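Hi all, long-time lurker, first post. I run a small reading group and we've been trying to get comfortable going from sequence to structure in the token notation. Rather than ask abstract questions, I figured I'd post a concrete chain and ask someone more experienced to write out its structure so we can walk through it together at our next meeting. Sequence below, copied exactly:
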Amino acid sequence: MIKTKHIVLDITEVPREWVFEHYLKLEENLTGQDVKIKSVFNPKDTRPSLFVYWNQVKNYYVFKDYSADIAGDAITLVKELFNLHSRSSATRKIIDDYGDYILNGGEKFTLREFKVKSKYKIKTVAPRNWNIIDKKYWMKYRIDSKLLEKYNVQPLKSYTIYRDDTDDMLEIKGELIFGYFSKNNTLYKIYTPNLKTRFFKVKDHIQGMDQLTYEVPYLVICSSMKDLLSFNKLGFKNAECIAPDSENTLIPESVIKMLKDKYKKVCTIFDNDEPGLRAMHKYEKKFDISYAHLMLEKDLSDSVEEHGIRNTRFHLYPILTKALTGTTKNLPE
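-- Answer (accepted) --
Happy to help. Here is the structure in token form:
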């Protein structure tokens, strides 16, 4: 008697979790948790930037690669990973590969119990006084305490996070923990440069908006608070600066419209890498905002650290002027 193994005929027979686990070579089974790994699309990715997470609206796993700006479902993952021309081609590959997996002795997926974990939230923060370690860190970028106070950056001794639906509670403490606060002293982000996960977002906030005067002709959009602070030290008196949550977060169109009405010209200065360039091109395409590509170090603050204020300003001066005025003459001070 001839025995046959199960042959997969339809994409609905292939669990979405298997697709992510198999093609991304995940070290853990997906059971409702989020997973963060290095980009499979960008070999230059130094920090994990690909997220696999449970979409509670669609009720299945999806992914977002911030380094390569690629996102979608399991079929999109395979389509982009293997440079296939269509979703139908990706679907066929998934079906064939899952069939081979079964035929070669792989265990057929069993029904899993999914328990989607809630996101961590801030429970408490413990403030502290500034110290010499803080000064040493920020002064690498020529950022002083007066500027940090202006932008409501405060040192923290520790902070505690928790999940609503569990007993999970975790206290993070140590050196170089900083809270970013709005003008009404509401915490919106925590920055821990020594940890693998450097940022803990508490709520949406456009960094630097509270400090805008709208009394100068130009506005620069940087990629981070640290870059924003470094820009303030370069001495461009005719330009103010803000920063979104991250390069991958577009400032809302209504806010951009208001800013373009308030300022003579707006431009971006994001990181000197593929994601940074991609983000600047997005702002240019969507909002008609020019960009200044500073090709020194990875970002503006690193450029100040490595080359100092004078040399960084020297290199930024002409490209910033061109982005803001369309010419290298009549440079903004």
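A couple of things your group might point at:
Residues 1-5 have pLDDT under 50 and may be disordered.
The CA atoms of residues 262 and 276 lie 25 Å apart.
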